[in-house]
Write a structure and sequence with these properties.
There is one protein chain. Helix content is 31%, strand content 24%. It is α/β, with parallel strands linked by helices. It has two domains: 314 residues, Aminopeptidase, CATH 3.40.630.10; 204 residues, Glucose Oxidase, domain 1. It starts with a helix and ends with a helix.
């Protein structure tokens, strides 16, 4: 793995260096960058992570306080409104779908044996976003990872008849897939879309057994707080990460033990099948089982908002095009108490990203001459619900869709140590790798490959919503370099994440390095500023996976 990371990193750096020149910025830009004040970043985080905002859950008063705060800052910095109807706001109609407790899932094999599964222990069902009552009965087939990528030499559906059937998949991807492609391929929405293309009527996600995740329901997602989608004005689903159409009228998850049992009933073993798929050889099969499922869903609709500001460009032609800087404004609200605290403040996730974007806005406001291309500063809602606010904005932007040239996303930079190296997630897929490399070189920061490719970070933040609309995008995260020379920052971050990530402890009492925040703001600004200045739009690399996959959108 180390050699792969080294080669990926070397390729990224050499490729960028082959086409780029040392970055030179004028005195106005350099002066504005130096004026970034770590105390300003801290003040933003302090406000947004205060208990009074109660975790910034969309649809709550706390989230509205965060919206009002951003609008106030935009106004004071001279950022123009770029939302709907001359405001800073874009309305996002969210639907919370809740599962009923009486869901049933019964399997019947060819020998006449039946197995009635227990809800919450053996399986859970994702609520349907539009149908109060749902039922399906169909044969069960195993479709490996649920991936079809013939161009990469792998297709789980090759030779498998999935039409009118329910497909069982496990999360994963062949080892030969690049990390970003693997992350996209095992994304729930990608799996659902592929199943629908092959005629399936349902998808059941299983987990391969793991000694690291014991317990009767360790592999089952907790859906008690509901599943969210964005609803369009026509009453249909506009954006969702777990729904494609009524053709797929069952999305369920089953415990690893149930999956093992299904394989045994079919006279096969799960382990070798998964290992075969990991190695690049699909092991799909008909499980010889028919499943009957029925479940209920209930809905709660409410409004939330994206906050959109504009810095108008200085070039008569290029000002009609837009670079987007994005960050998510929401967090997860109030939940289960941990050590006596139930408010999930989200100081790092993502008050720090919002603070960074507000300071990027301040840098633009200080420039004597604005960049040639216009800049959109987009604070999105519903990231924690499945990238919903960014998904809605990228699909239905408040400016002409073709006018958006790139997105630079800012999400949980994890400001716990000096920022000596950075990872530009997604930059290797487009010409955005050039401004990323230039900015790192200018600031004396090493540009590295992702130290945690297994975390699937490329598809877990808002830049992915723009990629899915064919727009080149990247997301800057920490690298591995440390002042001590041990270069193990990812290990420190993993330890931090275990204690603070999505916990009430992610507040101002945690670890912060606001000087690193200043560097992070400088880095993100410089990447975006280069794009805003360059007369040429960023483009996907020739033959790139994502460029080819989403070019028609």
């Amino acid at each position: 793995m180390k050699s792969v990371l080294f080669l990926n990193c070397l390729g990224l750096l050499l490729s960028a260096a082959s086409f780029s020149q040392p970055l030179v910025v004028d005195k106005s830009v350099a002066k504005a960058l130096k004026k970034i004040n770590p105390d300003d970043i801290k003040a933003h985080v302090q406000y947004l992570a205060d208990d009074r905002l109660r975790g910034r859950m969309p649809g709550t008063e706390g989230y509205q306080l965060a919206v009002d705060y951003v609008v106030g800052k935009y106004t004071s910095l001279g950022v123009e409104p770029a939302g709907e109807n001359g405001t800073y706001l874009q309305r996002v109609r969210l639907r919370r779908a809740l599962p009923g407790r009486d869901a049933s899932l019964i399997s019947r094999n060819t020998r006449g044996g039946t197995d009635t599964l227990a809800y919450g222990t053996d399986f859970v069902v994702y609520p349907h976003p539009t149908a109060p009552q749902s039922a399906v009965e169909a044969p069960l087939v195993f479709a490996g990872f649920g991936i079809s990528e013939p161009g990469l030499g792998f297709d789980d559906y090759a030779g498998l008849d999935a039409k009118g059937k329910i497909v069982v998949v496990v999360r994963g991807a062949p080892e030969k897939f690049p990390s970003t492609v693997a992350a996209h391929s095992q994304n729930t929405l990608t799996v659902l879309e592929n199943a629908a293309r092959h005629g399936a009527v349902g998808v059941v996600m299983g987990a391969a057994p793991s000694a690291a995740r014991p317990g009767p329901a360790a592999e089952l997602p907790n859906l008690d707080r509901g599943v969210y989608s964005v609803m369009g004005a026509d009453g249909n689903v506009a954006v969702s990460r777990n729904y494609v159409s009524d053709q797929i009228n069952l999305l369920a998850a089953i415990h690893a033990d149930v999956l093992v049992r299904l394989f045994k009933d079919a006279g096969r073993e799960l382990g070798p099948a998964v290992a075969s798929a990991k190695g690049g050889t699909p092991a799909s099969l008909d499980l010889g089982v028919t499943v009957r499922a029925a479940y209920q869903s209930s809905f709660q609709d409410f409004d939330s908002y994206n906050v959109v500001g504009r810095i108008t460009g200085s070039d008569a032609r290029l000002k009609e095009e837009y670079l987007v800087h994005s960050a998510h404004l929401d967090h997860v609200g109030v939940g289960k108490p941990v050590a006596g605290d139930s408010i999930y403040n989200g100081a790092h996730d993502n008050a720090s990203g919002v603070a960074s974007l507000l300071e990027i806005a301040r840098v633009y406001s200080r420039l004597e001459e604005k960049p040639r291309r216009s800049v959109l500063l987009v604070m999105v809602t519903g990231e924690e619900m499945g990238l919903l606010g960014s998904g809605y904005f990228a699909k239905y932007p408040t400016v002409p869709a073709r006018s958006i040239v790139a997105d630079i996303n800012t999400d949980m930079p994890t400001l716990i140590a000096p920022l000596l190296s950075a990872v530009a997630l997604g930059a290797e897929h487009s010409t955005l790798k050039i401004p990323a490399a230039n900015a790192c070189q200018y600031l004396g920061i090493d540009l590295e490959a992702d130290p945690e490719p297994g975390e699937n970070r490329f598809v877990r933040s808002d830049q992915y919503s723009f990629v899915a609309q064919g727009i080149p995008a990247l997301h800057v995260k920490y690298g591995n370099k440390t002042p001590s020379g041990e270069n193990n920052l990812s290990r420190q971050v993993q330890s931090w994440r275990a204690k603070y990530y999505h916990q009430p402890q992610d507040g101002m009492d945690g670890v912060f390095d606001f000087e690193a925040g200043k560097t992070y703001v400088q880095l993100n600004f410089l990447i975006g500023y280069q794009v805003a200045q360059d007369p040429s739009r960023p483009v996907w690399n020739p033959g790139d996976f994502f460029g080819e996959r989403f070019k028609s959108r």
